[in-house]
């Protein structure tokens, strides 16, 4: 297959001079710019709140300690909140994912933890429903449309206005002519992709490191996939209207209908009644203890913290040690359903990843969210870190509570500091392979169809 | 206008659509998707409500079977309320998946409504949920585009339009006839489907049809009929303005993207930038600030509570709180509750009004984008809108306040100040308290909330016919 350079050059000129390219590329760039602004704005606002937290915490603890003067730690410890934060990774501006839905700061008391983990952030639900116009949206939702607009009439328009017959008779190889035309489009699509991505890197200040390249790779593969789908439809050799209609239908199916059905399937096959159950159990587990003898409650506590056995707990008098042991047993009793909840959420994640193998659009979205650490898994990691922090705090204050230390004689800010989760670079190989396989598959199918519909065609008269 | 011509053209359009295979193929796809959406929606909602009812029953039983307790312990034990989905939510999920499903009501604290489905979902939900409303709002317009884009432009290309215009028909007659024919097809295909699914789904979920639900159903059907009419007019107008069918299709698909993706998203983020809402920490800080300014019940030197003490002592004519006939501790607690609840409500109302101003942007933009109009009004009528959720939040807070207040009254009168924490009262005291029952918004409230969107829909119909008249008057569009 030899591609005539002169024809190729003409094709580039021809294509670039068309209105579609200009309008398409410009509107996509504009959306890109807007999405960068939006991503920056959403994450900056979150970061501002997070930066505000240490001050709030310091001031809060000072107030608590001031109010508690003269009382024992055991009674003051009921009041303070301990803040935790989930700072954004540098890539979250690119793909906000579930970060607007899930809280990025959580405050916990020393009381039973389970009821405190699922406090929601204050947000306008309509804003959540409508979703974010972030960079990942531009690539996942809008780029396919650009690709469709660039390619749907490559051959059909020339067939419709008669140019194709000239091309057929003048070019040595029809295959080369088709390949040339498609390659020109592919080159321009890839250039646009790289251009928008580079602008994203600059505008969102993405670090030039492995995750950024992961993002780029996912985006490139994804764009390639849509290009091959377009080529496949073109290869059917139908009219421009047919191509456009079919491609838009494919887009709607892959980007709207399929995920909609898949989402219902996931929710239906893995329901989470544990969410309500955990909260109910913890509340009952703790409160029932008030009406029961103290010894069994204390024994449960001693089983984990034997070092406090030496402090006497009176059976007929309230004591702070007993109070916190009751709170602790609330958590013990809900631990089972809480674990099950996390497990089920992970199952949901796994199932959606499995579903994503059949849909490159979902695969791309999940991969981008994974790289940005904005998916459900990273939120669960955050919740687990909050749980760990809660334990550290309890363990810091327990000695003072059991020793009956006065509020003013301890350092209220001396508990082990909360360490936010570090960025976790997760492999996105699975998603990328899925996209690649679909792209390769449609390319092969396209080649077969081209041979049948364009190259080996017998009836030249009507071609 | 020749009514006879219009009917002929409309009939002809109807016949020609049913003659070709593509519309029927597309319709069967949509039919399958709608049935699937209705079925899964019904299943999901009934399963979900069942789950919530069970949880509620469990919490209620636990509440009733509490032993004799100190009333303030009961106030801390608190109550949990589980939000159930509205009977029509299977049709339009609206905001349901993005708002919380359970709230813990306790003394001293206003908790958020937690455990939304979106919080337990990975990103897939964000592509949009498959519901009947989504099919009607997003996909039926696309169907109309595909069956109608060449309705006039095709006549131009094959020269039939000129022949028609040479006869008695005016261009407006043709446009209206085409619109009537297309609309009739769309209505015949989708309105019965809509009506039947609404009634069937509702019957399956609630087991009965209430008058109000029926009214909502009829209103929804009527409004969707208007919506389809608007889209059809748009398609006919664009088709009439286009030189070729191909151009018409391109323009219409572009408009679809603009209406369904670009404008809604931009509207919401524009609203967010115009009216910035406080985050949770800022919101709580502001409340804490106001509460400590008004009176801090934990601060022994607080002036507000000092004067409360002085006044109470004076009222009962005693010199120390231990001589009061009522429990002073309970009095202080209720005063603290009054202060914090008032301040919370004030801040909460402000927050809600900020959200409402954010959402108003999309209501105003309904005049540019009919999808926003139908989206909003459909959520309103299905009880899955912003106001329904806000009503739930406000009602639970009211319930929390009243429950706590009653427990404080028991504390005030039945528990002696001396040795306060050692005493208990009979469980009967709180067993008599009423259970929480959500009062859904009435149809009138829903329609008022959707007033702007409703007006926008009607304005679109008028503007649509105006546009057809305008297009028909231009000679350029006849060629």
From TrEMBL, chain A:
Pfam family, one: DUF3526
Keyword Transmembrane set for record: yes
Coiled coil: none
Record keyword Manganese present: no
Keyword annotations of the record: Membrane, Transmembrane, Transmembrane helix
Superkingdom field: Bacteria
Bilayer-crossing regions: 20-37, 135-155, 182-206, 212-236, 248-266, 430-450
Protein name per UniProt: ABC-2 type transport system permease protein
Organism, scientific name: Dyadobacter linearis
The organism's taxonomic lineage, starting at the top: Bacteria, Pseudomonadati, Bacteroidota, Cytophagia, Cytophagales
TrEMBL record, chain B:
Alphabetical list of InterPro entries matching this protein: DUF3526
Record key words, sorted: Membrane, Transmembrane, Transmembrane helix
Transmembrane segments: 24-45, 130-152, 184-205, 217-241, 247-263, 447-471
Superkingdom assignment: Bacteria
Name of protein: ABC-2 type transport system permease protein
Protein species of origin: Dyadobacter linearis
Lineage, top ranks: Bacteria, Pseudomonadati, Bacteroidota, Cytophagia, Cytophagales
């Amino acid at each position: 297959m030899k591609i005539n350079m002169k024809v190729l050059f003409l094709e580039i000129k021809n294509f670039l001079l068309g209105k579609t390219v200009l309008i398409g590329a410009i509107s996509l760039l504009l959306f890109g710019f807007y999405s960068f602004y939006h991503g920056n704005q959403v994450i900056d606002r979150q970061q501002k709140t997070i930066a505000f937290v240490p001050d709030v915490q310091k001031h809060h603890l000072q107030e608590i300690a001031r109010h508690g003067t003269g009382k024992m730690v055991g009674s003051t410890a009921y009041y303070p909140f301990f803040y935790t934060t989930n700072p954004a990774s540098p890539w979250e501006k690119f793909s906000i994912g579930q970060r607007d839905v899930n809280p990025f700061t959580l405050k916990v008391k020393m009381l039973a933890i389970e009821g405190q983990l699922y406090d929601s952030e204050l947000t306008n639900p309509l804003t959540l429903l409508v979703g974010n116009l972030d960079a990942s949206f531009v690539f996942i939702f809008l780029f396919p449309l650009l690709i469709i607009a660039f390619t749907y009439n490559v051959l059909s328009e020339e067939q419709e206005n008669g140019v194709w017959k000239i091309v057929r008779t003048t070019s040595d190889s029809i295959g080369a002519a088709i390949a040339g035309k498609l390659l020109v489009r592919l080159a321009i699509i890839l250039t646009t992709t790289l251009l928008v991505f580079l602008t994203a890197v600059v505008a969102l200040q993405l670090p030039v490191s492995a995750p950024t390249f992961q993002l780029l790779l996912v985006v490139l593969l994804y764009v390639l996939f849509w290009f091959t789908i377009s080529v496949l439809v073109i290869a059917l050799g139908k009219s421009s209207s047919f191509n456009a209609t079919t491609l838009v239908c494919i887009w709607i199916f892959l980007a709207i209908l399929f995920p909609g059905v898949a989402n219902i399937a996931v929710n239906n096959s893995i329901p989470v009644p544990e969410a309500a159950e955990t909260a109910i159990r913890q509340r009952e587990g703790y409160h029932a203890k008030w009406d029961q003898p103290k010894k069994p409650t204390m024994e449960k506590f001693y089983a984990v913290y034997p070092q406090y056995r030496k402090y006497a707990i009176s059976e007929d008098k309230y004591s702070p040690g007993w109070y916190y042991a009751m709170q602790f047993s609330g958590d013990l009793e809900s631990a089972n359903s809480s674990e099950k909840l996390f497990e089920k959420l992970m199952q949901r994640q796994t199932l959606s990843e499995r579903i994503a193998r059949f849909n490159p659009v979902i695969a791309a979205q999940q991969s981008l969210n994974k790289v940005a650490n904005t998916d459900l898994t990273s939120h669960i990691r955050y919740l687990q870190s909050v749980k760990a922090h809660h334990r550290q705090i309890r363990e810091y204050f327990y000695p003072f509570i059991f020793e009956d230390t006065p509020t003013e004689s301890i350092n209220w800010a001396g508990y082990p500091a909360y360490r936010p989760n570090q960025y976790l670079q997760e492999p996105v190989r699975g998603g990328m392979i899925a996209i690649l396989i679909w792209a390769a598959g449609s390319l092969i199918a396209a080649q077969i169809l081209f041979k049948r519909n364009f190259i080996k065609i017998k009836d030249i008269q009507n071609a | 206008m020749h009514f006879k011509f219009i009917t002929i053209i409309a009939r002809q359009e109807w016949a020609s659509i049913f003659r070709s295979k593509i519309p029927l193929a597309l319709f069967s796809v949509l039919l399958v998707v709608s049935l699937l959406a209705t079925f899964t929606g019904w299943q999901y909602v009934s399963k979900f409500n069942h789950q919530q009812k069970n949880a509620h029953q469990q919490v209620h039983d636990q509440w009733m079977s509490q032993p004799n307790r100190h009333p303030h312990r009961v106030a801390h034990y608190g109550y949990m309320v589980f939000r159930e989905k509205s009977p029509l939510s299977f049709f339009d999920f609206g905001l349901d998946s993005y708002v919380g499903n359970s709230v813990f009501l306790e003394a001293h604290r206003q908790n958020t409504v937690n455990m939304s489905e979106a919080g337990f979902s990975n990103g897939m939900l964000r592509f949009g949920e498959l519901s009947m409303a989504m099919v009607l709002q997003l996909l039926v317009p696309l169907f109309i585009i595909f069956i109608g884009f060449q309705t006039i432009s095709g006549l131009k290309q094959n020269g039939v339009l000129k022949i028609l215009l040479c006869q008695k028909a005016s261009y407006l007659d043709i446009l209206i006839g085409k619109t009537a024919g297309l609309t009739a097809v769309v209505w015949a295909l989708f309105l019965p489907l809509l009506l039947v699914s609404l009634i069937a789904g509702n019957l399956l979920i609630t087991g009965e049809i209430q008058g109000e639900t029926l009214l909502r159903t009829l209103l929804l059907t009527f409004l969707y009929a208007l919506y389809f009419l608007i889209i059809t007019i748009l398609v006919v107008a664009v088709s009439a303005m286009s030189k070729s069918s191909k151009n018409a299709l391109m323009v219409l698909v572009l408009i679809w993207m603009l209406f369904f993706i670009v404008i809604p998203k931009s509207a919401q983020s524009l609203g967010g930038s115009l009216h910035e809402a406080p985050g949770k920490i800022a919101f709580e800080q502001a409340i804490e600030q106001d509460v400590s300014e008004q009176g801090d019940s934990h601060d022994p030197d607080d002036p507000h509570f000092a004067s409360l003490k002085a006044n109470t002592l004076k009222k009962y004519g005693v010199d120390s709180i231990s001589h009061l006939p009522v429990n002073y501790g309970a009095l202080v607690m209720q005063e603290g509750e009054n202060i914090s609840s008032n301040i919370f409500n004030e801040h909460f109302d402000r927050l809600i009004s900020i959200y409402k101003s954010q959402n108003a942007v999309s209501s105003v933009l309904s005049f540019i984008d009919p999808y926003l109009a139908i989206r909003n009004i459909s959520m309103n009528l299905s009880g899955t809108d912003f106001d329904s959720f806000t009503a739930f939040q406000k009602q639970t807070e009211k319930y929390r306040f009243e429950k706590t207040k009653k427990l404080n009254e028991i504390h005030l009168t039945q528990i002696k100040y001396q040795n306060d924490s050692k005493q208990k009262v009979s469980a009967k005291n709180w067993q008599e308290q009423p259970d929480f029952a959500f009062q859904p918004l009435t149809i009138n409230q829903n329609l008022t909330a959707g007033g702007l969107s409703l007006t926008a829909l009607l304005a679109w119909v008028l503007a649509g016919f105006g546009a057809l008249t305008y297009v028909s008057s231009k000679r350029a569009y006849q060629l």
